[in-house]
Amino acid sequence: MNVEMILSALPTLFAGAFVTVQLVVLSLLLGFALALAVAFGRLSSNRVISGITGAYVFLFRSTPLLVQIFLIYYGLGQFESIRESFLWPVLREAYWCAIIALTLNTAAYTGEILRGGIQAIPFGQIEAARALGMSRPLLYRRIVLPQALRTILPAYGNEMIQMVQATSLASAITLVELTGAARTIASRSFQPVEMFVIAGALYLAMTFVITQGVRWAEKKTATG
Amino acid sequence: MLDLLRFGSEGWGDEIASGAVMTLLVAVSAYLVGLFLGSGAAAAKLSGPAPLRWLAALYTTVVRGVPALLVIWLLFFGGSGLVTWVATLFGYGGRVELSAFAVGVAAVGIVSGAYATEVIRGAVRAVPKGQLEAARALGMGRLLILRRILVPQALRYALPGLGNVWQMTLKDTTLVSVVSLAELMRQAYLGMQSTRQPFLFYVTAAILYMVMTTCSEALFRALSRRADRGVRRAVSN
Q1: Where is the ABC transmembrane type-1 domain (chain B) (predicted)?
Q2: pLDDT category, B77, cuts 50, 70, 90?
Q3: Rounded to the nearest 5 degrees, what angle is found at the Cα of B82, between the Cα atoms of B80 and B85?
Q4: The CATH number of domain B2-227, selected from 2.60.40.10, 1.10.3720.10, 3.10.20.540, 1.10.720.60
Q5: CATH 1.10.10.10 holds for A3-221
Q6: ipTM for the complex shown
Q7: What residues of chain A lie within 8 A of the CB of B202, using their CB?
């Protein structure tokens, strides 16, 4: 094993890992906000709203993420109206296309997780809150969401880990994140396997941080 | 615009269709590899000797913690070397090259197997211990217990989870396009390059994937219903 060559590759790999972390954090934050809207949309008594959010969830969960990324990155650029719109500076960049695709994808999965968490709350609690004269926003802030968030923690932890891995697909649209960086070095050097092993170790470290974080949060929010 | 998808020499219809068939072929092969690896690793985790248990734990932890794409690249760059090394152990002198299909099926199968392990392990543990003890008390041999008592019941518990693993495996086959295997994504990419109509080709691919995932979901639901026959519930559904 050539230690020197591996050491010289480390800065590129770390730079790639930094891009991966950015993609994960940004798309998880944006995705969670959108997922709240999706969950409320799915639970809405308005047929049109629940129908539209239901279709959105179906579309994004029944197709592979890579297709979604390519459709946004390559597909949208086909239309002149989009190339001439104010959105083009954003949609031209692989970085933002990856974040948009990852956000839309995780929002569909997280929305369903959240919906399950909200639906798991016993109706008696909502009746009790109403009987105390709580307004709807207050009821959601104090009763529904805190409990729903606690229920979904394990499932959402899995979704976060899936997202770390999903960011690797951004390398298919020229973005040099961790997998892309490892691949670039691998095709140039005589030690391709070592590069992927180091990249794998970095991914495992990220997964480990998330599992520990979720475990800590579960302990923190456990009742009784 | 839609004539681009016509069958025959001037359209891309037949290329897309052959890509979809290749996608299904890779998915089914990888899924079978995954079920095989998953059963082995689950057996190791449940009742193997310590070294095998550790090996199985290492396998599921590592593979479920890294992206499938990384596994594909690792096998693409390192797989031939590994197979060549194994071949020299058996006295073969030349270099063994792996095809894109072999790399794809192996990589997606390894990932599929890591997830299948946990599903199968959970399902086997859900079978009441008393049943196995009763079978042993009746003098059944290990294989007979496996065939008549354990597998039929564990399969019922495993089906929903195995359905999820199948959906994941089917979607993971898209990643094999990076090593130029002519599956659906790759054919859509080639079509896009020669016609400059990316939206058309990727929407077509998306619809085909949607058909595949929806049909297989229905299939797994039917299988579940069949496995559940004769099981009485408090609430019928």
Answers
A1: 20-220
A2: confident
A3: 105
A4: 1.10.3720.10
A5: no
A6: 0.91
A7: 67, 70-71, 74-75
